[in-house]
Sequence to fold (352 residues):
Amino acid sequence: MSWLSSRQRGLTGALLAPLALLAGTGSASAHVKWFCAYDVAGQPRGLEQVLCPDFEWLTGLALVCLMFGCLAEGTPLGGALLNALDRVTTRIRTDTELLVRATLGFFLVSLWGLGGIILTPELKTDLAWVPWLQLAMAACLIWRRAMPLAGVGLLFLFGLATWQYGLFHLADYPIFLGITAYLVLQGLDRRPFGVRPLDIVRYTAAVTLMWASIEKWAYPEWTAPLLSAKPEMTMGASPGLFMQSAGVIEFTLAFSLIWTPLVRRASAIILTAIFVSAIFEFGKVDAIGHSGIIVVLLGIAADDTRRTVRVRDVALVPAGYGAALAVFLVLYYVGHEALFGTAVVVGNWPVI
Fold:
Protein backbone atom coordinates (compact mmCIF):
# COMPACT_ATOMS: atom_id res chain seq x y z
CA MET A 1 0.00 0.00 0.00
CA SER A 2 3.04 2.31 0.20
CA TRP A 3 2.67 3.28 -3.45
CA LEU A 4 -0.81 4.74 -2.79
CA SER A 5 -1.25 8.36 -1.81
CA SER A 6 -2.73 9.10 1.62
CA ARG A 7 -5.98 10.11 -0.08
CA GLN A 8 -6.13 6.83 -2.01
CA ARG A 9 -5.40 4.85 1.14
CA GLY A 10 -8.24 6.68 2.85
CA LEU A 11 -10.58 5.85 -0.01
CA THR A 12 -9.49 2.23 0.00
CA GLY A 13 -10.29 2.06 3.69
CA ALA A 14 -13.59 3.80 3.06
CA LEU A 15 -14.57 1.05 0.65
CA LEU A 16 -13.39 -1.88 2.75
CA ALA A 17 -14.45 -0.55 6.14
CA PRO A 18 -18.16 -0.28 5.29
CA LEU A 19 -18.04 -3.82 3.89
CA ALA A 20 -16.65 -5.13 7.15
CA LEU A 21 -19.08 -2.99 9.12
CA LEU A 22 -22.08 -4.04 7.05
CA ALA A 23 -21.15 -7.69 7.46
CA GLY A 24 -20.69 -7.17 11.18
CA THR A 25 -23.70 -5.03 12.17
CA GLY A 26 -25.85 -4.73 9.05
CA SER A 27 -26.91 -1.21 10.04
CA ALA A 28 -26.52 0.38 6.64
CA SER A 29 -28.19 -2.52 4.87
CA ALA A 30 -31.61 -1.78 6.34
CA HIS A 31 -34.10 -0.43 3.84
CA VAL A 32 -34.03 3.27 4.64
CA LYS A 33 -37.68 3.83 3.65
CA TRP A 34 -38.75 1.49 6.45
CA PHE A 35 -37.06 3.51 9.20
CA CYS A 36 -36.45 7.09 7.99
CA ALA A 37 -38.46 9.86 6.34
CA TYR A 38 -38.19 9.96 2.55
CA ASP A 39 -39.57 11.87 -0.43
CA VAL A 40 -39.56 9.85 -3.64
CA ALA A 41 -40.61 12.90 -5.68
CA GLY A 42 -37.83 15.12 -4.30
CA GLN A 43 -34.93 16.43 -6.37
CA PRO A 44 -32.08 13.87 -6.38
CA ARG A 45 -28.46 14.95 -6.02
CA GLY A 46 -26.84 16.31 -9.15
CA LEU A 47 -24.82 13.83 -11.20
CA GLU A 48 -21.66 15.86 -10.71
CA GLN A 49 -21.96 15.17 -6.98
CA VAL A 50 -22.42 11.45 -7.63
CA LEU A 51 -19.82 10.97 -10.37
CA CYS A 52 -17.01 12.68 -8.48
CA PRO A 53 -13.34 11.62 -8.20
CA ASP A 54 -14.03 9.69 -4.99
CA PHE A 55 -16.78 7.74 -6.75
CA GLU A 56 -14.48 6.96 -9.68
CA TRP A 57 -11.75 5.65 -7.39
CA LEU A 58 -14.20 3.54 -5.40
CA THR A 59 -15.74 1.98 -8.52
CA GLY A 60 -12.27 1.38 -9.97
CA LEU A 61 -11.21 -0.48 -6.83
CA ALA A 62 -14.45 -2.49 -6.87
CA LEU A 63 -13.76 -3.44 -10.49
CA VAL A 64 -10.28 -4.68 -9.61
CA CYS A 65 -11.73 -6.87 -6.83
CA LEU A 66 -14.43 -8.20 -9.16
CA MET A 67 -11.95 -8.99 -11.93
CA PHE A 68 -9.61 -10.70 -9.47
CA GLY A 69 -12.44 -12.91 -8.22
CA CYS A 70 -13.46 -13.78 -11.76
CA LEU A 71 -9.85 -14.55 -12.73
CA ALA A 72 -9.37 -16.79 -9.68
CA GLU A 73 -12.48 -18.77 -10.61
CA GLY A 74 -10.73 -20.30 -13.61
CA THR A 75 -7.86 -21.64 -11.49
CA PRO A 76 -7.61 -24.85 -9.44
CA LEU A 77 -8.29 -22.71 -6.36
CA GLY A 78 -11.58 -21.58 -7.86
CA GLY A 79 -12.55 -25.17 -8.61
CA ALA A 80 -11.71 -26.21 -5.06
CA LEU A 81 -13.82 -23.39 -3.66
CA LEU A 82 -16.77 -24.40 -5.84
CA ASN A 83 -16.42 -28.03 -4.72
CA ALA A 84 -16.37 -26.92 -1.09
CA LEU A 85 -19.45 -24.77 -1.60
CA ASP A 86 -21.23 -27.68 -3.26
CA ARG A 87 -20.56 -29.90 -0.24
CA VAL A 88 -21.54 -27.30 2.37
CA THR A 89 -24.76 -26.24 0.64
CA THR A 90 -26.08 -29.67 -0.40
CA ARG A 91 -29.10 -29.58 1.91
CA ILE A 92 -30.05 -26.03 0.92
CA ARG A 93 -29.79 -26.94 -2.77
CA THR A 94 -31.95 -30.03 -2.32
CA ASP A 95 -34.62 -28.13 -0.38
CA THR A 96 -34.50 -24.72 -2.08
CA GLU A 97 -38.14 -24.86 -3.14
CA LEU A 98 -39.26 -25.96 0.31
CA LEU A 99 -37.26 -23.15 1.93
CA VAL A 100 -38.80 -20.58 -0.42
CA ARG A 101 -42.31 -21.82 0.32
CA ALA A 102 -41.73 -21.90 4.08
CA THR A 103 -40.07 -18.48 4.19
CA LEU A 104 -42.67 -16.85 1.99
CA GLY A 105 -45.37 -18.45 4.14
CA PHE A 106 -43.74 -16.90 7.21
CA PHE A 107 -43.61 -13.56 5.38
CA LEU A 108 -47.30 -13.63 4.40
CA VAL A 109 -48.54 -14.82 7.80
CA SER A 110 -46.47 -12.05 9.43
CA LEU A 111 -48.08 -9.45 7.16
CA TRP A 112 -51.49 -10.89 8.04
CA GLY A 113 -50.64 -10.59 11.74
CA LEU A 114 -49.34 -7.03 11.47
CA GLY A 115 -52.19 -5.86 9.24
CA GLY A 116 -52.37 -2.72 7.13
CA ILE A 117 -49.30 -3.59 5.00
CA ILE A 118 -49.35 -4.56 1.33
CA LEU A 119 -45.85 -5.99 0.84
CA THR A 120 -43.27 -3.95 2.77
CA PRO A 121 -43.52 -1.78 5.92
CA GLU A 122 -43.89 1.57 4.13
CA LEU A 123 -46.57 0.27 1.74
CA LYS A 124 -49.60 0.88 3.98
CA THR A 125 -53.22 0.11 3.16
CA ASP A 126 -56.61 0.55 4.82
CA LEU A 127 -58.22 -2.25 2.80
CA ALA A 128 -59.48 -4.78 5.32
CA TRP A 129 -59.42 -7.72 2.90
CA VAL A 130 -55.69 -7.47 2.08
CA PRO A 131 -54.50 -9.33 5.24
CA TRP A 132 -56.97 -12.15 4.56
CA LEU A 133 -55.71 -12.44 0.99
CA GLN A 134 -52.19 -12.73 2.38
CA LEU A 135 -53.30 -15.50 4.75
CA ALA A 136 -54.98 -17.36 1.88
CA MET A 137 -51.80 -17.03 -0.20
CA ALA A 138 -49.80 -18.50 2.68
CA ALA A 139 -52.18 -21.46 2.78
CA CYS A 140 -51.65 -22.02 -0.95
CA LEU A 141 -47.95 -22.52 -0.30
CA ILE A 142 -48.68 -25.69 1.66
CA TRP A 143 -49.38 -27.60 -1.57
CA ARG A 144 -47.01 -27.52 -4.52
CA ARG A 145 -49.84 -27.48 -7.05
CA ALA A 146 -51.31 -24.41 -5.37
CA MET A 147 -48.04 -22.44 -5.55
CA PRO A 148 -49.09 -20.66 -8.78
CA LEU A 149 -52.12 -19.24 -6.94
CA ALA A 150 -49.83 -17.71 -4.34
CA GLY A 151 -47.74 -16.30 -7.19
CA VAL A 152 -50.80 -14.73 -8.82
CA GLY A 153 -51.77 -13.23 -5.46
CA LEU A 154 -48.29 -11.78 -5.04
CA LEU A 155 -48.51 -10.24 -8.50
CA PHE A 156 -51.90 -8.75 -7.61
CA LEU A 157 -50.51 -7.20 -4.42
CA PHE A 158 -47.56 -5.77 -6.38
CA GLY A 159 -50.04 -4.23 -8.83
CA LEU A 160 -52.11 -2.82 -5.96
CA ALA A 161 -49.02 -1.25 -4.39
CA THR A 162 -47.99 0.18 -7.77
CA TRP A 163 -51.45 1.69 -8.27
CA GLN A 164 -51.37 3.23 -4.79
CA TYR A 165 -47.73 4.34 -4.57
CA GLY A 166 -46.62 4.68 -8.18
CA LEU A 167 -44.33 2.82 -10.53
CA PHE A 168 -41.17 4.62 -9.43
CA HIS A 169 -41.63 3.64 -5.79
CA LEU A 170 -42.26 -0.01 -6.67
CA ALA A 171 -39.12 -0.02 -8.84
CA ASP A 172 -37.45 -0.76 -5.48
CA TYR A 173 -39.04 -4.21 -5.42
CA PRO A 174 -38.78 -6.19 -8.68
CA ILE A 175 -37.67 -9.09 -6.46
CA PHE A 176 -41.38 -9.72 -5.84
CA LEU A 177 -41.93 -10.19 -9.57
CA GLY A 178 -39.08 -12.70 -9.60
CA ILE A 179 -40.57 -14.60 -6.67
CA THR A 180 -43.93 -14.55 -8.45
CA ALA A 181 -42.32 -16.13 -11.52
CA TYR A 182 -40.55 -18.68 -9.34
CA LEU A 183 -43.76 -19.78 -7.62
CA VAL A 184 -45.74 -20.05 -10.85
CA LEU A 185 -43.04 -21.82 -12.88
CA GLN A 186 -42.01 -24.19 -10.09
CA GLY A 187 -45.62 -25.07 -9.39
CA LEU A 188 -46.30 -25.76 -13.06
CA ASP A 189 -42.85 -27.33 -13.61
CA ARG A 190 -42.10 -25.03 -16.54
CA ARG A 191 -38.77 -23.73 -17.89
CA PRO A 192 -39.58 -21.01 -20.46
CA PHE A 193 -36.90 -20.94 -23.19
CA GLY A 194 -34.82 -23.21 -20.96
CA VAL A 195 -34.43 -20.54 -18.26
CA ARG A 196 -34.68 -21.88 -14.73
CA PRO A 197 -37.02 -20.18 -12.23
CA LEU A 198 -34.04 -19.69 -9.88
CA ASP A 199 -32.24 -17.73 -12.60
CA ILE A 200 -35.25 -15.45 -13.09
CA VAL A 201 -35.42 -14.63 -9.41
CA ARG A 202 -31.62 -14.17 -9.36
CA TYR A 203 -31.81 -11.55 -12.10
CA THR A 204 -34.62 -9.68 -10.34
CA ALA A 205 -32.67 -9.75 -7.07
CA ALA A 206 -29.71 -8.18 -8.89
CA VAL A 207 -31.94 -5.47 -10.41
CA THR A 208 -33.53 -4.76 -7.01
CA LEU A 209 -30.19 -4.23 -5.28
CA MET A 210 -28.62 -2.23 -8.12
CA TRP A 211 -31.61 0.12 -8.09
CA ALA A 212 -31.35 0.46 -4.31
CA SER A 213 -27.69 1.41 -4.60
CA ILE A 214 -28.58 4.30 -6.94
CA GLU A 215 -30.88 5.65 -4.22
CA LYS A 216 -27.97 5.68 -1.79
CA TRP A 217 -26.16 8.06 -4.16
CA ALA A 218 -29.19 10.10 -5.21
CA TYR A 219 -30.66 10.59 -1.72
CA PRO A 220 -27.94 10.17 0.93
CA GLU A 221 -29.85 12.63 3.13
CA TRP A 222 -32.55 10.00 3.72
CA THR A 223 -30.01 8.04 5.78
CA ALA A 224 -28.76 11.11 7.68
CA PRO A 225 -30.95 10.48 10.77
CA LEU A 226 -29.67 6.90 10.96
CA LEU A 227 -26.04 8.02 10.70
CA SER A 228 -26.63 10.73 13.30
CA ALA A 229 -28.06 8.18 15.70
CA LYS A 230 -25.26 5.69 14.97
CA PRO A 231 -22.16 7.74 14.04
CA GLU A 232 -19.91 4.74 14.61
CA MET A 233 -21.27 3.26 11.39
CA THR A 234 -19.11 5.58 9.28
CA MET A 235 -15.86 4.51 11.03
CA GLY A 236 -14.55 8.05 10.80
CA ALA A 237 -15.47 8.70 7.15
CA SER A 238 -17.71 11.60 6.25
CA PRO A 239 -21.39 10.67 5.80
CA GLY A 240 -21.18 11.53 2.10
CA LEU A 241 -18.18 9.30 1.45
CA PHE A 242 -19.69 6.53 3.55
CA MET A 243 -22.90 6.54 1.51
CA GLN A 244 -20.93 6.54 -1.74
CA SER A 245 -18.94 3.56 -0.47
CA ALA A 246 -22.03 1.70 0.70
CA GLY A 247 -23.66 2.27 -2.68
CA VAL A 248 -20.61 1.02 -4.58
CA ILE A 249 -20.44 -2.10 -2.40
CA GLU A 250 -24.12 -2.86 -2.90
CA PHE A 251 -24.01 -2.21 -6.65
CA THR A 252 -20.91 -4.40 -7.08
CA LEU A 253 -22.35 -7.30 -5.10
CA ALA A 254 -25.64 -6.99 -7.00
CA PHE A 255 -23.87 -6.94 -10.37
CA SER A 256 -21.92 -10.02 -9.29
CA LEU A 257 -25.20 -11.96 -9.04
CA ILE A 258 -25.44 -11.96 -12.84
CA TRP A 259 -21.80 -12.93 -13.46
CA THR A 260 -19.87 -16.21 -13.24
CA PRO A 261 -20.83 -19.05 -10.83
CA LEU A 262 -18.22 -18.58 -8.09
CA VAL A 263 -18.49 -14.79 -8.21
CA ARG A 264 -22.28 -14.81 -7.87
CA ARG A 265 -22.26 -17.48 -5.16
CA ALA A 266 -19.67 -15.56 -3.12
CA SER A 267 -21.71 -12.38 -3.61
CA ALA A 268 -24.88 -14.15 -2.46
CA ILE A 269 -23.12 -15.35 0.71
CA ILE A 270 -21.83 -11.85 1.52
CA LEU A 271 -25.25 -10.28 0.87
CA THR A 272 -26.93 -12.93 3.03
CA ALA A 273 -24.56 -12.12 5.88
CA ILE A 274 -25.31 -8.41 5.47
CA PHE A 275 -29.09 -8.86 5.53
CA VAL A 276 -29.05 -11.34 8.41
CA SER A 277 -26.79 -9.09 10.49
CA ALA A 278 -29.20 -6.19 9.94
CA ILE A 279 -31.91 -8.16 11.70
CA PHE A 280 -30.00 -8.01 15.00
CA GLU A 281 -29.89 -4.22 14.70
CA PHE A 282 -33.43 -3.52 13.46
CA GLY A 283 -35.45 -6.43 14.76
CA LYS A 284 -38.54 -8.17 13.48
CA VAL A 285 -39.53 -5.50 10.93
CA ASP A 286 -36.27 -6.08 9.10
CA ALA A 287 -36.55 -9.86 9.53
CA ILE A 288 -40.00 -9.92 7.95
CA GLY A 289 -39.24 -7.40 5.20
CA HIS A 290 -36.00 -9.02 4.03
CA SER A 291 -36.95 -12.67 4.55
CA GLY A 292 -37.84 -13.14 0.86
CA ILE A 293 -34.56 -11.87 -0.52
CA ILE A 294 -32.56 -13.74 2.13
CA VAL A 295 -34.00 -17.11 1.11
CA VAL A 296 -33.44 -16.27 -2.56
CA LEU A 297 -29.79 -15.45 -1.84
CA LEU A 298 -29.39 -18.76 -0.02
CA GLY A 299 -30.73 -20.54 -3.09
CA ILE A 300 -28.25 -18.69 -5.30
CA ALA A 301 -25.37 -19.51 -2.95
CA ALA A 302 -26.30 -23.21 -3.08
CA ASP A 303 -26.79 -23.37 -6.88
CA ASP A 304 -24.21 -25.82 -8.27
CA THR A 305 -24.64 -24.90 -11.93
CA ARG A 306 -21.22 -24.41 -13.53
CA ARG A 307 -19.73 -23.22 -16.76
CA THR A 308 -16.20 -22.77 -18.06
CA VAL A 309 -14.78 -19.40 -17.10
CA ARG A 310 -12.73 -17.87 -19.91
CA VAL A 311 -10.39 -14.90 -20.17
CA ARG A 312 -13.14 -12.96 -21.91
CA ASP A 313 -15.27 -13.22 -18.75
CA VAL A 314 -12.56 -11.24 -16.96
CA ALA A 315 -12.01 -8.84 -19.84
CA LEU A 316 -15.72 -8.09 -20.13
CA VAL A 317 -16.12 -7.14 -16.46
CA PRO A 318 -15.31 -3.41 -16.93
CA ALA A 319 -17.59 -3.10 -19.96
CA GLY A 320 -20.44 -5.01 -18.33
CA TYR A 321 -20.11 -3.18 -15.03
CA GLY A 322 -19.83 0.20 -16.71
CA ALA A 323 -22.83 -0.50 -18.95
CA ALA A 324 -24.94 -1.63 -15.99
CA LEU A 325 -23.94 1.45 -14.00
CA ALA A 326 -24.75 3.78 -16.90
CA VAL A 327 -28.09 2.09 -17.60
CA PHE A 328 -29.27 2.29 -14.00
CA LEU A 329 -28.17 5.90 -13.56
CA VAL A 330 -29.95 6.91 -16.77
CA LEU A 331 -33.09 4.94 -15.91
CA TYR A 332 -33.21 6.41 -12.42
CA TYR A 333 -32.56 10.04 -13.27
CA VAL A 334 -34.43 10.23 -16.58
CA GLY A 335 -37.30 8.15 -15.19
CA HIS A 336 -37.51 10.45 -12.16
CA GLU A 337 -37.56 13.51 -14.40
CA ALA A 338 -40.29 12.00 -16.61
CA LEU A 339 -42.55 11.03 -13.69
CA PHE A 340 -41.97 13.90 -11.27
CA GLY A 341 -40.72 16.75 -13.45
CA THR A 342 -37.39 17.06 -11.65
CA ALA A 343 -34.34 18.05 -13.65
CA VAL A 344 -31.24 15.95 -14.29
CA VAL A 345 -28.71 18.38 -12.87
CA VAL A 346 -25.02 18.61 -13.73
CA GLY A 347 -23.32 21.36 -11.81
CA ASN A 348 -25.83 24.18 -11.47
CA TRP A 349 -27.41 23.49 -14.83
CA PRO A 350 -30.36 21.22 -15.62
CA VAL A 351 -29.62 19.10 -18.69
CA ILE A 352 -33.12 17.60 -19.09
About this structure: The radius of gyration is 20 Å. DSSP finds 18 helices and two strands in the chain. The CA atoms of residues 83 and 338 lie 48 Å apart. Residues 1-28 have pLDDT under 50 and may be disordered.
